[in-house]
């Protein structure tokens, strides 16, 4: 499996760092395929995917921020971000921030 971590010198260290974040970190392709999700991100996605036939898909609520970012893609400037706040019940909400993660030089981020 070719992941973002295969291009990193110490992939296990990078995975350990991502798992340690209190925030949910979900790394996906521009087609919505999961590359990596830390434990917190997996729990958040499961919360929104309850009752769906494909629980490993990016929930629509999160994907909408990603789609806005994709729609504004400027190949020379990958510093753009898209933010959103999504409700997860009556008293809980999450802040979603989508941004490009350039992995290799000459490939789309």
Distance between the termini: 17 Å
Number of helices: 3
Tell me the structural class.
alpha+beta
Amount of helix: 25-40%
Tell me the quaternary state. single chain
Shape: globular
Mean pLDDT across all residues, rounded?
A: 76
Tell me the total number of β-strands.
4
Compressed to H and E, one letter per element, the order equals: HEEHHEE
Q: Widest sheet: strand order?
A: 1-2
Question: What does the largest sheet look like?
Answer: 2 strands, antiparallel
Rounded to the nearest angstrom, the radius of gyration is 14 Å
Flag low-confidence runs: none
Write a concise keyword list for the protein shown above.
two-stranded antiparallel ribbon; two-stranded antiparallel sheet; 4 strands; globular
Characterization of this structure:
There is one protein chain. By secondary structure, this protein is α+β, with helices and mostly antiparallel strands. It is 29% helix and 19% strand. It contains 3 helices and 4 strands. The strands form 2 sheets. The protein has a two-stranded antiparallel ribbon. The protein has a two-stranded antiparallel ribbon with strand order 3-4. A hairpin with a 5-residue loop joins strand 3 (81-87) and strand 4. The longest helix has 12 residues, at 60-71. It is globular, with a radius of gyration of 14 Å. The two termini are 17 Å apart. The mean pLDDT is 76.
